[in-house]
Amino acid sequence: MKPISIVAFPISAMSMLFLSAASQAASMQPPIAKPGETWILQAKRSDEFNVKDATKWNFQTENYGVWSWKNENATVSNGKLKLTTKRESHQRTFWDGCNQQQVANYPLYYTSGVAKSRATGNYGYYEARIKGASTFPGVSPAFWMYSTIDRSLTKEGDVQYSEIDVVELTQKSAVRESDHDLHNIVVKNGKPTWMRPGSFPQTNHNGYHLPFDPRNDFHTYGVNVTKDKITWYVDGKVVGEKENLYWHRQMNLTLSQGLRAPHTQWKCNQFYPSANKSAEGFPTSMEVDYVRTWVKVGNNNSDPGEGQSCPNTFVAVNSVQLSSAKQTLRKGQSITLESTVLPNCATNKKVIYSSSNKNVATVNSAGVVKARSKGTATITVKTKNKGKLDKLTITVN
Q: Which of 37, 155, 202, 289 has the most neighbouring CB atoms within 10 Å?
């Protein structure tokens, strides 16, 4: 059940519901938040799934390998996103990695559902509450994020592709084995190199034995991505951690149900359809109660690191700073003040300048101070949001 509290006020039901939702969005913090930290919920990469929002999610994204996505296989009802895999014969263009060519009208046998965020990001905490599909083996409910593949990046060490798997369920031989993996393409020795979990387990693989059957009920799966580390969580428990070596690119957040053995086979670094085209166990669906994304912006100087985008929601001002506390001018001399509003992600950085003694020194809206006569004056900068202040003492000789 979603942790939404309703606050009672002597107003209309509609107004009460609106205020409750607004209050929840403003106060909700991720379960990993520590005292004194401030995290901002990113609206464009979060959803309670009260409606099917195509402005936020792409439900008909690009097909890839054996995965054929269909908009109709993603439905929303009763506050849940349902992604369904169906047995449906069809043909489309398929990349044949073994022969290094595109093949038109390639026969495929299953379709599925996907929700890919239209907004991108990287550092932050991501969490979804998911119930796995009843069919096992054959499908893998997944919560993950991935970037585009940029082949123009050709310098040694360039990262052409980043992927973080928050969780992949029921893709192993045992139903309780979950994967929390990393994938990337990095230029090594002048060539793009796929780094898969199987080939690079030390840096790219985390496996976990779930203490429950993921098909039976909803559980939370999360990951915290920082510039230095990537940490995975299941129901609030840390289940894996890796150094963040390559995962700094902008990525789309994705929920999907992928096809697995016995209906696929792995060869030439990709999945191919297998000889098993059975309809037994299909259609089958995973369900998502919610997905939530937070960016940490607490502490006055807390700003996004390299590659990180600012949150998509309103960020309040914490402070304003002038470049110096004192300044000496000659009569008739002018200077332009430099003020820094923090954090750098603050939504409204507008400021107002004022002078305590305009006979000594004036200041205009652009921060230009002009010395008019001998004496001292205090120049104050005040932010329009939150009214934060800093002051500068001007002495005119």
A: 289
